Amino acid sequence: MGHLLVAGGAGYIGANFVKYLLDHTDDHVTVVDNLSTGRHEAVKALENRFGSRFTFLLSDLGNAEKLHSFLHKNPVDGVFHFGAFSLVGESQYDPLKYYYNNVAQTLALLKTVVEHEIRYFIFSSSAAVYGIPEKIPVKEDALSRPINHYGKTKAMTEEILAALSGREDFVYASLRYFNVAGTDEELLTGECHDPETHLIPIAVKTAMGKRDHMALFGTDYETRDGTAVRDYIHVTDLCEAHWAAFKKIRKSGDPLIVNLGSARGYSVKEVLETVKDVTGKDFKIIEEGRRPGDPPVLIASSEKAKTELGWTAKRSLEEMIVTSWEWEKKNRK
Ligand SMILES: NC(=O)c1ccc[n+]([C@@H]2O[C@H](COP(=O)([O-])OP(=O)(O)OC[C@H]3O[C@@H](n4cnc5c(N)ncnc54)[C@H](O)[C@@H]3O)[C@@H](O)[C@H]2O)c1
What is the SS3 assignment for the chain? Predict the structure, then answer.
């Protein structure tokens, strides 16, 4: 039995991944999270479900003293790092908050990881590192040219990881997610950002009547229906890819940078129509102008993930919306 550390494991994706690990391995899992955007309810749900196989450590990732004292007594085999702020708009008006949390805290975490000789490190990166890519589907060797501070924090962290990759005792994978949605079938933990900025949960909340209407930004792009096209990936597919990436770097000892997307594009209008079909609810959509910096089309090339990890996204857009809808219904209040 091993021991894995999940940084940011009380958040949406991290908590789904903790459940995935505890369901699919014999390992003990410790979450370290300061609950800045994570949820105590997610921690409780994991504790109730998995009991003594799960530990929660309330801490900043940069709190070296607290992490040292924990890791000294409880050595871990690898770290999965989900902990970050991720609101693009907020990163533009408060860049310091983003560089401090996403870069400085990650540096401190990495220092602790290296000092404790933890060899394997999996980082949650983002398609935001590409900015507005020249070629679609986007391959991993496309230029990294982020156009907002959030994306820059991810690109900077990737540079720091690359600088460490010369070390004998450190191997990393940087996983560049596209748009993550849905929740695990059992609905143990789901998406609860505040404020919510992602299309599917906003549409589902509007379908439920929690919002009076929703905005659709940009209807004059050169796409099939004029709205922006994005690549969506089910969170359970994403979890499977993380585990595959961990096994891969453990075996190869080589660093890895890989996109995690479905390699399929859906327009905003197509997503909204699917939400209406799945939920059986009509809702008001107000068309607005383009948001600055939104690329018309963003679709991942998933060739590298297939070759390197033997992984492809299996779950459909409908499955993302169904689980997101069921989760909202469960949390109606
Ligand atoms: N949701 C998406 O579609 C998406 C897309 C691309 C990349 N990502 C990346 O995936 C990761 C997880 O995203 P999410 O949607 O689950 O976000 P989230 O906000 O739900 O989860 C982030 C978690 O990290 C914790 N955290 C943040 N800073 C911390 C710190 N300094 N110390 C301790 N804990 C800290 C928060 O409390 C929270 O529990 C992030 O790194 C995000 O940038 C997400």
Answer: CCEEEEECCCCHHHHHHHHHHHHHCCCEEEEEECCCCCCHHHHHHHHHHHHHHEEEEECCCCCHHHHHHHHHHCCCCEEEECCCCCCHHHHHHCHHHHHHHHHHHHHHHHHHHHHCCCCEEEEEEEHHHHCCCCCCCECCCCCCCCCCHHHHHHHHHHHHHHHHCCCCCCEEEEEEECEEECCCCCCCCCCCCCCCCCHHHHHHHHHHCCCCEEEEECCCCCCCCCCCEECEEEHHHHHHHHHHHHHHHHHHCCCEEEEECCCCCEEHHHHHHHHHHHHCCCCEEEEECCCCCCCCEECECCHHHHHHHCCCCCCCHHHHHHHHHHHHHHCCC
